């Protein structure tokens, strides 16, 4: 299909497709469009965000099956072929012959690119290698001075994953303040987020051939967009004194305070009632995985708060109330909270 037709057809599944580059749209049309249509026939929506345990298991299964079909030695060779220059040609040939793209994405209603990135993160032996030593941090600074943002090259030199070295450099590249946020820092954060939204709106206007005067438009944002995925490394650079994760946490706090008008919804009697309501609603949902939960809907259980706030409160509840929670499935954790913790909270109330 031609580019414009591809965009029109993909828009049904990827609402922001017109903000993507033409090259990305062409790849998505080739790798994803047919799959998306097949999932639609089955009544399955295209997903974004965090991968569920079920999806992780499917990625693992797809990779292992492809290895058994092709007799490629390891997942690292399959997903990080450039690390093996002598075998690169033969591995790439096997990938083409046996439909690597189709096999990797089998049974997963997500864009292929996201599935590929997830597989690389799961199977990279250089990932999850613990805290960086001071020596490693100094090496990272030195390699960045030599190679800039060539994270692929730096990751090979550091024996760490691309994502790991990029995020760690983002953290250490400037003096980060770990104390309370000053008024000036908070204002910088709010302005940085506002700038991101303005840029997005201008792109949307340009793509819809809007003739309105953008410079005179009020910045009206759907509530949900306020805590959707934002370019936090870009926002971090604009704030200047805070690490990206701190910016994300502070933004959630600002939204929570504004949406609740500063009320402490999770303290005292209100807090007890919020925990009780949260446990009951989660139990009623019968979800097998946290990514099957509609956290937006659950936010009304506690009050008018961002879904990230609700997830954080659930995390705190399971950590403080459920013994050996790391070894339990999501549904087992919810069952325990309902059967053991709920009666205790109701008695307190």
Automatic annotation (TrEMBL):
Residues 124-161 form the HTH myb-type domain. Residues 124-172, 173-255 form the Myb-like domain. GO terms for cellular component: nucleolus. Coiled coil: none annotated. It comes from Ceuthmochares aereus. GO terms for molecular function: chromatin binding. PROSITE patterns: HTH_MYB, MYB_LIKE. GO terms for biological process: termination of RNA polymerase I transcription. This is TTF1 factor.
